[in-house]
Amino acid sequence: GAVVSQHPSRVICKSGTSVKIECRSLDFQATTMFWYRQFPKKSLMLMATSNEGSKATYEQGVEKDKFLINHASLTLSTLTVTSAHPEDSSFYICSARVWSGAVGNQPQHFGDGTRLSIL
Amino acid sequence: GQQVMQIPQYQHVQEGEDFTTYCNSSTTLSNIQWYKQRPGGHPVFLIQLVKSGEVKKQKRLTFQFGEAKKNSSLHITATQTTDVGTYFCAGTISSGSARQLTFGSGTQLTVLP
Fold first, then answer.
1. Which 3 state secondary structure label does DSSP give A20?
2. Which of A62, A63, B62, B66 is the most exposed place for a label (fewest CB within 10 A)?
3. Do residue B33 and residue A93 have CB atoms under 8 angstroms apart?
4. What does the DSSP assignment read for B13-60?
């Protein structure tokens, strides 16, 4: 089955630090990857859609200069939280979709997530 | 605002009891997907429903898609402790040429042994 690898799984750093999170599709090519943020016992909030070779599409209210997304290849997307502050502490999770061209959305395959803690 | 609502938010059941979570959308959905997230884990895809009135079964799990394609349900018969987790529905809302998957708020299931 499709596997998505996300790294690192946990980050603890000081306020003001920039943190990069990687999302890789291991056995398939993903032209589109998604970045979510999940608060404790809450749903997944879509932050942005990462498109290979083009600019990411950000959801309303998400600062594109704060959350930099790069999707340079068909198997790798990165999310960089710039100048992170305690309010950025959260669980960030990426997903990728295997595109088959069939009618309807294809299942999303999620990475294990990154627990970000800003002190 | 959130267009896919899910109830209940929490459900505690005794092992062996049935469980149902409901998903409602304010707009017609192209399809609906269901995911399960175990505590500390990531969401795992369970199933996708596309057709109006569609019903699919996976062992003790029964998934339904409403006739109007605005609501869906997941029913678990005779719950087991392995069913513990948060169940999310996710609907595809087509807007122009865009197709966006919107997650419901999730139902956290606790099964008491």
1. strand
2. A63
3. no
4. EETT--EEEEEEESS--SEEEEEEE-TTS--EEEEEE-STT-EEEETT
Tokens, residue A59 = 């959801």
Extract the tokens encoding B73.
């349900």
Check CB contact under 8 Å for A43 and B104: yes
> Is the CB of A44 less than 8 angstroms away from the CB of B101?
no
- What does the alpha-carbon distance between residue A40 and residue A27 come to, in Å, rounded to a whole number? 30
**Total residue length of chain B:** 113
* Higher-confidence position of A8 and A31: A8
Residue A1 and residue A28: Cα distance in Å, rounded?
9
| Burial state string for B57-69 with b = 16 or more CB within 10 A and e = fewer than 16 | eeeebbbbbbeeb
Residues B50-101 have pLDDT tens digits of 999 999 999 999 999 999 999 999 999 999 999 999 999 999 876 655 567 8
Task: Tell me the pLDDT tens digit for each residue of A38-88.
Answer: 988 778 899 999 888 888 999 888 999 999 999 888 899 999 999 999 999
Q: How confident is the model at residue B13 (pLDDT cuts 50, 70, 90)?
A: very high
What's residue B2's pLDDT?
52
Closest-CA residue to A114 (of A71, A84, A73):
A84
Among the partner-chain residues A44, A105, A109, the one whose CB lies closest to the CB of B103 is: A44
| CA–CA distance, B66 with B2 (Å, rounded to integer) | 19
